[in-house]
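Technical appendix A lists one of the benchmark inputs used to test multi-chain prediction within the project. The record comprises two sequence entries:
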Amino acid sequence: MSALPGTVYLNEEGPREGFQIESAAIPTAAKIELVDRLARTGLRHIQVASFVNPKAVPGMADADAVIRGFTPRPGVHFTGLWLNQRGFERALGHRDRLTIDGSLNLYASAAFLKRNQNRVPAQQLSAQHELVAMYQAAGVSVRRGFITAAFGCNFEGDVPVERVVGLVGDLLAIAAEHGETIDHMGLGDTMAWATPDRVKRVVGAIREKHPDLPLLLHLHDTRGLGIANAYAGLEMGVRMFDTAVAGLGGCPFAGHAGAAGNVCTEDLVFMCEEMGIETGVDLDALIDCAKFAETIVGHPLPGAVMRGGGLRRFREIRRAG
Amino acid sequence: MSALPGTVYLNEEGPREGFQIESAAIPTAAKIELVDRLARTGLRHIQVASFVNPKAVPGMADADAVIRGFTPRPGVHFTGLWLNQRGFERALGHRDRLTIDGSLNLYASAAFLKRNQNRVPAQQLSAQHELVAMYQAAGVSVRRGFITAAFGCNFEGDVPVERVVGLVGDLLAIAAEHGETIDHMGLGDTMAWATPDRVKRVVGAIREKHPDLPLLLHLHDTRGLGIANAYAGLEMGVRMFDTAVAGLGGCPFAGHAGAAGNVCTEDLVFMCEEMGIETGVDLDALIDCAKFAETIVGHPLPGAVMRGGGLRRFREIRRAG
């Protein structure tokens, strides 16, 4: 039997993943309320918003207001996401409220890179050097590396494991060249190609080359395997996961099939806690947040434990009886 | 890394699990059409209906008509479920169309046994002897054993692994005493207490005592772990699963939280095929069945791959491009 980790660290991305995709306008106050509630569950990392063009992503037009509105809480990192220098500069404007770490990012799919960024692989490598320079000029350390489409790609098909291992090495080398140290490497299952088996192969191959590099899994649930993939990650000793409360970001009933959200935070918390893995999160408080999130978006969200409930109450009934 | 099995055998229970729980009246012809479509996907086992009191389960009032209506297909076992002698006798009336195997069943939770059958554990043991006698009188062989609430129980809490191992031994001994041979043992996660870890512990403990006994997992998805639990089973070499197309039987949005369905057939087929495990099932045909099932019940069903789609088309695009 595999050795599961003793603790995990969850990056809650529900507010960012979720509100960028919802078609209905959600009141800024409701977004702030959700962030504040999440911050009281024991979660230590909450991604609040993304600094993107509001014309492209109307749901993020109030990003600055949301960030100005939430209540900071000691021990909780609140973060934002940016995709370019302009977004980074907006984030810097909230340095007093946000934890701002530099992140490097390579695509494992050339076809997706071409389509999304109109770049070829050599160009994305040089762009990372420019990114480091941008961070250093602002006095921001590079902390996170991320590989997009690490498990497969709708535009390219299967992604060879060796390619992902090579890109991880590239990011580590680029950071080192500039005196920076990446302290964890994210693997993005951007288009939901991962299976438990693929997770194990990719994580295993990276581990072989970089045994001490902490890995993070960013898993989408489009094909229902998010939680199984997370379990495979846990079996490989992965301790960091991007997750979304209630499975925010996914609306499996709206027809945008490619858009299913991250693995659901409370489902993962439930699984971990029941297997003896500490999350630091109060499951009942998190379930309340999930139900609140559903109220805000006004349609069912895909989380399961928010409906099925945890098991503690049954054990308590038994003890009381 | 674990050795996954090369093939799996799926018992499709969607028509039975699903239609017994739906509140709206579903036309008999639609049920028959779903069974016929499922029979053309490559599935080798389809549970069509249960022979229960129509006053208690109105959705099964047309069980006999559904069974008379479907089109038998060589290589496909069509089965029914019964819970008592009267139900068994009704099933016998369809001997020309149904595969009728005897099944023994013990509850791992005394509290649930008391509540559901008003029996104590010693009584359920003697009842198995009577069951064997009933089967033998009808010339039916005992093939399947089943442990209900093998992973935990809402009315009793955690179920000790040793108890489940003991009950498996009891069923094998009872069958042997009567000259019968149980050819697979089902483990029911009746109230969705299983985690991947618990699946491994229970399966591992049974394996230690009965290394050659094929095991079957009957997993409910109430807490979102169905597919992760199935993966844990696969890692332990389990090759048989009860599943439900589209996740039929579960309506996570109707508020009956305890009622989530079996692990979704096409999601499990997708995971298996992508990991190189043969299911014998055509995923695209199965996805069509899942969509048809959703049309029949008139509300969203929880399956994911029916919305997200498989991956074959992306690989084909790539080859064509």
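The longest helix of chain B spans residues 121-137. Confidence is low (pLDDT under 50) at residues 252-258 of chain B. Comparable benchmark entries are summarised in Table A2.
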